[in-house]
Amino acid sequence: MHSSLTVAPARRRPAARVWRDRLPGIVMGGPAVLVFVAMFIVPMILAFVLSLTDWNGYSLNFTFIGFENYTEVFRNPRTVDAAIFTAVVAFFGTVLCNGVGLALAALIAGPGRTNTLMRTIFFYPYIISALIIGFLWSAILAPEGAVNELLGHLGIPAVPFLTEVGFAKASVILTIVWSHFGFNMILFLAGIKSVPTEYYEAATVDGASRWQQFRAVTLPLIAPVFTVNLVLTLVGLLKVYDVVLALTDGGPAASTQTIVYQILKDSFAQSRLGFGAAQAVILLLVTAVLGLAVTFARRGAEKKVAA
Amino acid sequence: MPSLTTRSTPAPVADGAPAAARVAPPPPARRRTTKVRTPLTGRVVKWIVLGATALVMLVPLYIMVINAFKPQEAIISSPLAIGPDTFSLEYLQAALTSEKFNVVRAYGVTLLFVALVNLCGIALAAPVAYVIARGRSKWHLGLLLLFVSGLFIPGQVTLIPVVFVLRVLGLINTIPGFILFETAATLPVTIFLFAAYLRTVPRDIDEAAALDGAGRIRAFWSCVFPIMRPVVATIVVLNSISVWNDFVSPQIILGPSSGIYTVTTGVYAAVGEFSTDYTTVFPTLLLAVSPAIVFFVVMQRHIIGGLVAGATKG
After folding, report:
1. Cβ–Cβ below 8 Å for B183 and A122
2. B267 touches A at CB < 8 Å
3. What does pLDDT average to in each consecutive run of 10 residues of chain A (307 residues)?
């Protein structure tokens, strides 16, 4: 007994000191961890749990219905159509935003005031809310809007930009490209400007044309920026919503509803949060898989360049 | 437009033999002729492309601005023109004093949200980023990975269960609930950039503060945090833009029943129902985008620098 009394404090003291040393770290890190767990980790787990229920969003009483919501996702034609349109938007949006962004970045990469002005003009829509961009273009592309008025002067009959299925889909994609390519361009510009000028001088000495320089020097050296641009645009466009809501409100005939449009409509307008959660879980998985797939595919390309 | 030629000539002159170049101008001259021979048409095409794109980018802005001052018939009959006979401030004034959408109040509410989210986000993220950046154990790395995983979780996916959590907490349709969600949404990027920046801050500063008898928490806030000014500025820019433009979270978490409108949810409430009454649409949109445009013009360099840093490091 006597010995245990002397041993115990000796053992306890370092433990207490460890905790005293850890205390500031816990006080500094604790609140952020708590908020993050409450608003990210718990919801992530809940999203899966709720996707197995028929929760309506109001009452806290609901029943588990197994994987019924998931099987409905693949049976429901509206969800399938929304998924297909989202894929189309994501694909063409990513290709066009990056294509236009890269081309314009290459054109205005030099110093000079005109180039800076161009950068500002091309980029500014990115800082405007997508909802407002959607409303603005919806007014411009309306049957009596500015574009049709202009076409009328040229003797061209009014184009149903937002009221005919094919045109409406194209209008959604082009509006997204209009407002988003500036962001891709900014990243490409940063990449192009980080290429050491000696490389271009060496290429000029070798007699390479500007196009050859772009292909052999610029493109390989901005490969990492390319990857970031592709992944960010793709992942961002898979959850496009605001601009569609304001531009076409999913119409005509539900042809421009995206998957997030569908999720929010099912969840909150139709009070089927369980079904919405199932679609959200699938969207999360698809986003993660595609994002990682592009990253790894590009990493291969980046390595080939480095070798 | 001589940017192309002036850009290509000085670089080799400065890098090569400056004295020789000054004495003998022929080399740059020869270079210029080889450059210009083909690119002359190339340059014309370049400026046509840039000019046309600039027009496509600016005309919608122009349409929005001029049509905010015109009656409905004039907007429809000649959307691209404005004359003194149709010009009127009446519609802008009507939008400013509209009972459906109080723009001035929405500015105030949204600015308050932007400020609160920035304040809460930075107050939460900075200390934990410091702990992560200074920590050496695998726990600290795990903590960083935990937060960074949030970068890949789209807000729309967690929104439904977040509604559930906020309902359980009794915070749904309240400002604290909204601030809590938006703050959490800023944490992954903020912590990631803060931790990356703090790794470049020498430990000597912490040790000097410790020698002066400051505890770890005080040492951080009084000695390390002030050094983080550049990265804090980047984060403030990024968070401000995303909170100002967010539509879905305030629409769902605050909801119309709360009676609290941000600029975006207010525009949706006001324009959504009147989308063919252009005397409401254009002035409302103009009022909604003006602060963002002014902010962009004033802060352009910081915004672009911040976006590049956020995207390429994140």
Report:
1. no
2. yes
3. 44 64 76 87 88 82 84 88 94 95 90 88 92 92 86 87 90 94 92 86 84 84 87 90 90 88 87 88 89 84 66
